């Protein structure tokens, strides 16, 4: 079955004077999906969202919502619901009045208001709070009211800009799960901006990695993590970060300052097929580096810089001959002292190789 497109951006550019906030972005947003825009500060995520909402004028390109060209349509005519970081509720109104407000300004009948508020409040488990004022609510409860207010109309698109960022860590995790369940059960098409990877990975059907006003990769969270298409995505997604080694590729092997690493046959084949490449970046995630106290086949000698027990796992920072440290994420059973000699080896199938010049992934 073909998935229906709910909204599209076609060659969208937004400049603020000489700053190019969004640079020729094309993107289809599918009906019912949870699309997360993830990227560092200043990458253009919020501007993309504001363009969709109609809060910014396009410099170039077209935006369609449900096949209607909306370039010149003001926000109120786009049938979009928004939840922002500062979930401004009206302080003098009760929860009920806050929830009903979007229907009130659209002059909907009293009976409809009562029914919709009751439905939404039940979904969000805030039925008991309807008579309270916002200042009598916890942060999480306020957040749910803000979500409820966005959900009260059946909007075409939900746009959310870091809606959980004002909550404490525990509540964020809880609200994240609730948001996910809610969005799936309602089937609302949602575009969600965050710079928090965990949020992106857990909430998204698809993640768009944004950098310098460009979508670097648009894929499922698993694809983004396991098959990053360039060095930026590889380094940005994953915490702690992927280890990178500068190396030279020759005949089935990558040689770095620290080791000569023989590659699996199928990886060699892909590198050969790729064509002429010499200088490469070998990328290995911390969980794909194994450490041990005894020498095993294919292991390289290294020294512990510091070892940190995190509870469920241990982070072993180590170095080879130089000063640069690398990281292995290993079982909490492993413990080692500072400067202790260890052996490190790589999970051969899990490695990434990037062209050093273009930074594009070859493997
Ligand atoms: P953050 O995570 O920090 O919110 P972001 O990815 O949402 O960042 P944007 O807010 O979209 O980034 O900003 C993208 C670029 O556009 C930045 O360089 C920013 O300084 C610039 N910019 C955004 N809004 C304006 C504005 N109204 N006037 C001038 N420059 C702007």
TrEMBL record:
Gene Ontology BP annotations: carbohydrate transport
GO CC, alphabetical: ATP-binding cassette (ABC) transporter complex, substrate-binding subunit-containing
InterPro entries, A to Z: AAA+_ATPase, ABC_transporter-like_ATP-bd, ABC_transporter-like_CS, ABC_transpr_MalK-like, ABC_transpr_MalK/UgpC-like, Mo/tungstate-bd_C_term_dom, NA-bd_OB-fold, OB_MalK-like
Classification via SMART domains: AAA
MF terms (GO), sorted A to Z: ABC-type transporter activity; ATP binding; ATP hydrolysis activity
Keywords: ATP-binding, Nucleotide-binding, Transport
Residue ranges constituting the ABC transporter domain according to the UniProt record: 7-237
SUPFAM superfamilies referenced in this protein's UniProt entry, alphabetically: MOP-like, P-loop containing nucleoside triphosphate hydrolases
Protein name: ABC-type sugar/spermidine/putrescine/iron/ thiamine transport system, ATPase component
Transmembrane segments: none
Organism for this UniProt entry: Vecturithrix granuli
Pfam family, one: OB_MalK
């Amino acid at each position: 079955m073909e998935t229906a497109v709910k909204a599209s951006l076609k060659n969208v550019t937004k400049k603020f004077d000489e700053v190019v906030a969004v640079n020729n972005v094309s993107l289809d947003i599918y009906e019912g999906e949870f699309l997360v825009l993830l990227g560092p500060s200043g990458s253009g995520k919020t501007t993309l969202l504001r363009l969709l909402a109609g809060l910014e004028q396009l410099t170039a390109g077209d935006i369609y919502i449900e096949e209607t060209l909306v370039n010149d349509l003001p926000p109120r005519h786009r049938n979009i619901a928004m939840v922002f970081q500062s979930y401004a509720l009206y302080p003098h109104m009760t929860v009920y009045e806050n929830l009903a407000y979007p229907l009130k300004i659209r002059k909907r009948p009293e009976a409809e208001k009562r029914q919709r508020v009751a439905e939404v409040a039940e979904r969000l488990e805030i039925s008991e709070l309807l008579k309270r004022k916002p200042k009598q609510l916890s942060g999480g409860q306020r957040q749910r009211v803000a979500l409820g207010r966005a959900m009260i109309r059946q909007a075409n698109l939900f746009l959310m800009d870091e809606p959980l960022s004002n909550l404490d860590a525990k509540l964020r995790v809880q609200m994240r799960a609730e948001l996910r369940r809610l969005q799936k059960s309602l089937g609302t098409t949602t575009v969600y901006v965050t710079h928090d990877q965990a949020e992106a990975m857990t909430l998204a059907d698809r993640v768009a990695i944004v950098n310098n006003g460009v979508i670097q990769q648009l894929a499922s969270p698993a694809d983004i993590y396991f098959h990053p298409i360039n060095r930026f995505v590889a380094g940005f997604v994953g915490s702690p970060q992927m280890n990178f080694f500068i190396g030279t590729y020759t005949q089935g092997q990558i040689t770095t300052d620290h080791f000569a690493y023989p590659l699996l046959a199928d990886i060699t084949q892909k590198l050969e097929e790729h064509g002429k490449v010499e200088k490469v970046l070998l990328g290995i995630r911390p969980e794909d580096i194994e450490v041990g106290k005894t020498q095993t086949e294919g292991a390289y000698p290294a020294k512990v810089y510091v070892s940190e027990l995190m509870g469920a796992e241990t982070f072993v920072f180590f170095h080879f001959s130089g000063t640069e440290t690398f990281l292995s994420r290993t079982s909490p059973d492993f413990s080692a002292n500072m400067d202790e000699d260890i052996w490190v080896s790589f999970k051969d199938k899990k490695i990434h190789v990037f062209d050093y010049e273009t930074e594009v992934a070859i493997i």
